[in-house]
Design a protein that fits this description.
mainly alpha; Tetracycline Repressor, domain 2
Amino acid sequence: MPVVAQAFAEMGYRRTTTADLARRCGVRENILYRLWPDKKAMFVAAIDYMFDVSVESWEELLQQPAKGHSTARRLLDHEASHHGELGLYRIVFAGLSETDDPEIRRALARMYEHFQKFIRQQIEAHRSDSQASNSAKVGLASAAWAVIGLGTVANIGRELGLLDDSDRRRLMEQAGRCLLDAGGEKKGE
């Protein structure tokens, strides 16, 4: 799966052929078709893989001893330095141009819902542990979506050469911390 995902990240959905995927994997095409019924299923699996890799790295990070920061802050600090470095976000960018396909659309929606839920849980724990509150009063759900948007903007900046590593790190740290600490929503938000 890492090889398949990397191929889609580098070439996008439309430009990637099953022959390309088989060649990169060092197998014949029929081997790929034993695992997936078609290229679209391979792409959907790459979307799922991208989410799994992200959460796996986050969970690994959270297993390490805490250094006085909440899990949300530790994840934010990690992402400020490492967000997008594998380039797998390009799978999402490629998928967004394919949202007229119901299966790809569902896979992306599921992925974003899972990311938002995970991030929301981290922000909620951070706010309840730290008593941090900002006058902006950004609700949990909105803050989680905004963190996702922050990552997307950082990746756009990377792709277009508008933000270098230090600019992306600063963006993630500064805006991300504001979102983490901008509590004050009502229960159920």
